[in-house]
Specification:
Helix content: over 70%
Shape: globular
Radius of gyration: 21 Å
Largest sheet: none
Number of helices: 17
Number of strands: 0
Structural class: mainly alpha
Order of helices and strands: HHHHHHHHHHHHHHHHH
Oligomer: single chain
Length: 369
């Protein structure tokens, strides 16, 4: 079971959250449904973003699963529940009350007057927006307690050993079979793309990566398999990428005479799952090889990553609302939004969050050493 800190996973957490930031910077310009939208959109940008969507959040949930094992190894189950509540539930409540209403205000700017009554109107909606990740992670962490206790038992150790032996024979990529079946079946009955905790297809999909993190963190042999097979996973990722874009750009008229809409969606979920799992294994393998190095920069970034995540979408929407009004190119707007949002988040973190104990508490940070 993972008990020593893995710096490569810290790097991957930081990189994943920064990727979420970049994704949300680009969202007003890809023609998708976001809180604020530019008058013009880029089809090319949308074509690129749809690929990275397949593994951006799965990687974050996987790393969170590994981190959950690490947090649990130093605590009793009661201490673990207390720690998760302080680190996840308190920031979630604070975010819903303070950080989310400004997003809704600028999303429906024309409908609100900036006064106290409009704030309470926004607050009453109790939206979580991008904080759905924290909400999902909190409930996943609590629901995983019996499973973690099982993994720590002698019977659980035997089960993990059998999983390791099976993975040695067939490869960890074979786990994708479970992912594909889970994705196709749940999407058939719960087709919504909502990230709500009540959407079964969404919660089970991300739970797969979270649970995979729990299992793999419980076996050093599984980590070694990921490391030794990283080149194979990279080849599978390239092949999966080709299949993904081949199907993505294939005109629907080619298959519609032969396959129903449901069947065509099932093929889409298959290609998405192949990309997601193969890229994740590749990133884990090469990350373990090259990123498992402690550094002062990583320590500072890892400390800041949680408040950065909480702040980023609110800052992007507020600044972005004014940037999309400008008469300039999409690329110029993206670069301006990226730079201005990043600078403002860093300034807010350094001046308003990092120095103050009560702000650190509200943003889920530990006390300063």
């Amino acid at each position: 079971m993972t008990t020593n800190r893995r710096f490569d996973l810290d790097w991957l957490r930081v990189i994943s959250v920064f990727a979420v930031f970049v994704h949300h910077v680009c969202m007003p310009f890809n023609g998708d449904d976001f809180h604020i939208m530019n008058s013009e959109s880029s089809k090319l940008l949308d074509d690129v973003m749809v690929y990275f969507e397949q593994f951006r959040l799965p990687l974050l949930f996987f790393v969170s699963g590994v981190g959950t094992i690490f947090a649990f190894s130093k605590r009793t189950w009661f201490q673990f529940v207390k720690e998760r509540s302080l680190r996840l539930l308190i920031p979630l409540i604070f975010g819903v009350v303070v950080l989310i209403p400004p997003q809704t205000f600028f999303e429906y700017y024309a409908e609100f007057n900036f006064n106290i009554s409009s704030y309470f109107k926004l607050l009453s909606q109790l939206k979580v927006n991008h904080l759905w990740f924290i909400e999902n992670l909190f409930w996943m962490s609590l629901c995983s307690i019996p499973f973690i206790l099982f993994l720590k038992s002698s019977k659980g150790e035997r089960v993990v050993m059998k999983i390791t032996q099976s993975s040695s024979k067939y490869g960890l990529f074979s786990w994708c079979i479970i992912l594909v079946l889970l994705r196709i079946v749940t999407k058939h009955y719960f087709p919504s793309d909502s990230k709500s905790i009540s959407n079964v297809s969404s919660i089970l999909y991300y739970s797969f990566y979270f649970m995979a993190g729990l299992v793999i963190a419980s076996s050093s042999n599984l980590w070694n398999l990921i490391l030794s097979n990283r080149r194979k996973y990279f080849s599978l990722a390239l092949l999966s990428t080709v299949l993904f874009y081949f199907y993505y750009f294939l005109p629907s008229s080619v298959l519609s005479p032969y396959l129903s809409l449901s069947q065509r969606w099932s093929i889409w979920y298959l290609t998405c799952s192949l990309v997601s799992w193969s890229v994740l294994l590749t990133v884990l393998g090469y990350g373990y090889k090259h990123l498992n190095i402690k550094s002062f920069l990583l320590t500072k970034l890892n400390e800041a990553v949680y408040p950065f995540y909480m702040l980023h979408q609110t800052v992007i929407i507020i600044i972005g609302y004014f940037i999309i009004q400008l008469n300039t190119s999409i690329l110029s707007k993206i670069l301006l939004l990226f730079c201005s949002s990043l600078v403002l988040i860093i300034v807010l973190y350094i001046l308003a969050i990092y120095p103050f104990k009560w702000m650190r508490f509200l943003f889920g940070m530990k006390n300063k050493n």
